TrEMBL record, chain A:
GO terms for molecular function: mRNA 3'-UTR AU-rich region binding. InterPro entries: ExoRNase_PH_dom1 (IPR001247), ExoRNase_PH_dom2 (IPR015847), ExoRNase_PH_dom2_sf (IPR036345), Exosome_comp_Rrp42_subfam (IPR050590), PNPase/RNase_PH_dom_sf (IPR027408), Ribosomal_Su5_D2-typ_SF (IPR020568), Rrp43 (IPR033196). PANTHER family: EXOSOME COMPLEX COMPONENT RRP43 (PTHR11097:SF9), EXOSOME COMPLEX EXONUCLEASE RIBOSOMAL RNA PROCESSING PROTEIN (PTHR11097). Belongs to the RNase PH family. GO terms for biological process: exonucleolytic trimming to generate mature 3'-end of 5.8S rRNA from tricistronic rRNA transcript (SSU-rRNA, 5.8S rRNA, LSU-rRNA); nuclear mRNA surveillance; nuclear polyadenylation-dependent rRNA catabolic process; rRNA catabolic process; TRAMP-dependent tRNA surveillance pathway; U1 snRNA 3'-end processing; U4 snRNA 3'-end processing; U5 snRNA 3'-end processing. This is Ribosomal RNA-processing protein 43. It comes from Aristolochia fimbriata. Residues 45-180, 219-284 form the Exoribonuclease phosphorolytic domain. Keywords: Cytoplasm, Exosome, Nucleus, RNA-binding, rRNA processing. Its main location: cytoplasm.
From TrEMBL, chain B:
One of its GO terms (cellular component) is nucleolus. Its main location: nucleus. Belongs to the RNase PH family. Keywords: Exonuclease, Exosome, Hydrolase, Nuclease, Nucleus, RNA-binding, rRNA processing. Residues 27-147 form the Exoribonuclease phosphorolytic domain. GO terms for molecular function: exonuclease activity; RNA binding. It is found in: Nucleus, Nucleolus. This is Exosome complex exonuclease RRP46 homolog. It comes from the Eukaryota. GO terms for biological process: nuclear mRNA surveillance; poly(A)-dependent snoRNA 3'-end processing; rRNA catabolic process; rRNA processing; U4 snRNA 3'-end processing. InterPro entries: ExoRNase_PH_dom1, ExoRNase_PH_dom2_sf, PNPase/RNase_PH_dom_sf, Ribosomal_Su5_D2-typ_SF, RNase_PH.
Length: 305, 261
């Protein structure tokens, strides 16, 4: 008796799985009617989000961000460069987004993912146009030396909302960034000094004693949506993104300015009312993410003290 | 037909804002479009807005889809060729937006398991490049005779430091702007069934946003303002597209049409 019951359940499960694979859109619509999603989330709920600071000891600043299964590792390496003549007080930021083959079944070794350069460009746009980092803070000596910050974001697991997770990891890495001490050597070149050495040798003057942390203003936070008919699905996973193709990403900074509203085509047209809803949802999400980031920073400070 | 002047009549407050080329804030640059220029391609079009010119060619539908594409639908391939140099991140991004925009307007189920290539060659770039390329690609698709749901019309809206919206900025203006948005709207359909505009959630269908890319930060209200202005201007552009189609049906040869006529 028991075995037959179990078999019946198995058959039911098989059928549902088959239905899901054969008619993915209809399968989703059945859920959407009930304002639910197959992973048990309501439509406007984001997946669990966490931020860990400093997972990479060899980088000057690093962070690991997770939104559901989507995992992003961001690392910043600082190098000294000569600033360009037009802006002698400005440092520079170079941002790169990588999608290695381990992140998803779609990415094949040897062939770079199509979306990687696009997300890379989006990240650069969002970070620079929000004005989160004052490039003047990266200056060391006027006209002679400034920091070049290389930010690399690696996607370790690609399960939708890649840009949201990448931006969160990038922002967290910048807030974790510890600028190394540097001094001028006899030939007038900038060399790094380790913390203990710097205190011992007073003959060499440390150039940047007080500027060890960047001051981040107007931090941008983003939230992605998938639009389907009249439904707005917040923080879509990879399956939802592949079935419903109208993706919208809203980036707002903490002062409420719109840093980016990104909609690369899609079947569903976004009307003003939809866009307003998206902006409102993104605003709430920004507050949530800010709290998550602040908590991570607080944890780190407690650990170090 | 007279030039597109004063898309909005109540612009007295911003009349004193001068643009380098003497246009009013909501005035577009002269548009021109010519079709059927390339003989080997199934469809082609050149679209210029002032000094920004883009040439688009359509090849297809060709048999078979690429790997990882759904064979039950037609697949669209966009090849973006910059004026000079290598294909960088910007070109990849523009290529992807163009591809997804065209996917949304094409009826993909009519030619399943086929690939249509759209090659976009930038001839000169003087700002508003992406909208210009979208308009060119659309005109080329019409020229190739592919079945489309509706047309997509691109427009670039800029926001000046003082918070005014200007349309169709040049490269020089783009650099000075606080922010600018490239917006794509569907063209207004003419339906034989209903007299009034088709309404979706109380808004006409041509108010729906197909694609949006923004550069620079701006207040949310200003973005919505940009949307409003952009919509008004796309009416004019979609009219040009429609006239071009009409003209093409009439004589079937290389046709050129411009807003200054």
């Amino acid at each position: 008796m028991e075995t037959s019951l179990a078999q019946g359940e198995l058959v039911g499960e098989m059928e549902m799985d088959a239905y899901r694979r054969l008619f993915p859109l209809r399968f989703y619509e059945r859920y959407l009617l009930e304002s639910l999603r197959p992973d048990t989330r309501p439509l406007i709920q984001c997946r669990d989000t966490s931020v860990a600071l400093g997972p990479v000891a060899s980088a000057d600043g690093s962070a690991l961000a997770k939104i559901g299964c989507t995992t992003m590792l961001a690392g910043i390496k600082l190098e000294v460069m000569t600033p360009v003549a037009e802006s002698p007080d400005d440092g520079c930021i170079a941002i790169e987004f990588h999608m290695p083959p381990i992140c998803s079944a779609i990415v094949r070794p040897g062939r770079p993912a199509e979306v990687a350069p696009v997300i890379s460009k989006q990240l650069t746009d969002a970070i620079l146009s929000s004005g989160m980092i004052n490039l003047k803070e990266l200056s060391l000596i006027h006209g002679k030396a400034a920091w070049m910050a290389y930010l690399d974001v690696y996607c370790l697991d690609s399960d939708g909302s890649l840009f949201d997770a990448a931006l969160l990891a990038a922002v967290a890495a910048f807030s974790h960034l510890q600028i190394p001490l540097v001094s001028l050597n006899d030939e007038g070149r900038v060399v790094t000094v380790s913390a203990e050495l710097g205190e011992g040798k007073s003959s060499k003057e440390v150039v940047n004693k007080e500027k060890r942390k960047l001051k981040l203003t107007n931090i941008p936070f983003s939230l992605s949506f998938v639009l389907h008919k009249k439904y707005i699905l917040v923080d879509p996973n990879a399956e939802e993104e592949s079935i419903m193709d109208s993706l919208v990403t809203v980036v707002l900074d903490l002062s409420g300015r719109l840093v980016s509203l990104y909609k690369p085509g899609g079947q569903v047209l976004a009307y003003t009312s939809t866009l307003k809803d998206c902006v409102a949802l993104a605003r709430n999400r920004g507050k949530e993410l800010k709290k998550i980031l602040d908590d991570a920073l607080l944890d780190m400070e407690e650990d170090s003290s | 037909m007279k030039r597109f002047q004063d898309l909005n009549s109540n612009i007295i407050t911003i009349m004193d804002m001068e643009r380098v080329d003497g246009r009013s804030p909501h005035q577009l640059r002269p548009l021109s479009c010519s079709c059927n220029l390339l003989h080997r391609a199934h469809g082609s079009a050149r679209w210029s807005q002032g000094d920004t010119t883009v040439l688009a060619a359509v090849y297809g539908p060709k048999a078979g889809t690429r790997k990882n594409e759904n064979p039950e639908k037609a697949s669209i391939e966009v090849i973006w060729k910059p004026k000079t140099g290598q294909i960088g991140k910007l070109e990849k991004e523009y290529g992807m937006i163009l591809k997804r925009t065209l996917q949304s307007i094409c009826l993909l189920t009519i030619h399943p398991n086929t690939t249509t290539s759209i090659i976009v060659q930038v001839i000169s770039d003087d700002g508003s490049l992406l909208p210009c390329a979208i308009n060119a690609a659309c005109a080329a698709l019409v020229d190739a005779g592919l079945p489309l749901r509706h047309l997509a019309v691109g427009i670039c809206c800029g926001l000046t430091e003082s918070g005014f919206v200007i349309l169709d900025p040049t490269k020089l203006e783009e650099q000075k702007l606080q922010a600018f948005a490239s917006l794509v709207f569907p063209n207004s359909p003419i339906s034989v069934f209903s007299k009034g505009p088709l309404l979706v959630e109380g808004e006409p269908i041509e108010h729906g946003l197909v694609a949006s890319v923004t550069h620079g930060a701006m207040p949310v209200e200003d973005y919505l303002n940009c949307l409003e202005r952009g919509r008004l201007a796309t009416d004019k552009i979609s009219e040009i597209l429609r006239r071009m189609q009409q003209r093409f049906l009439d004589d079937g040869r290389t046709t050129e049409i411009s807003s200054t006529q």
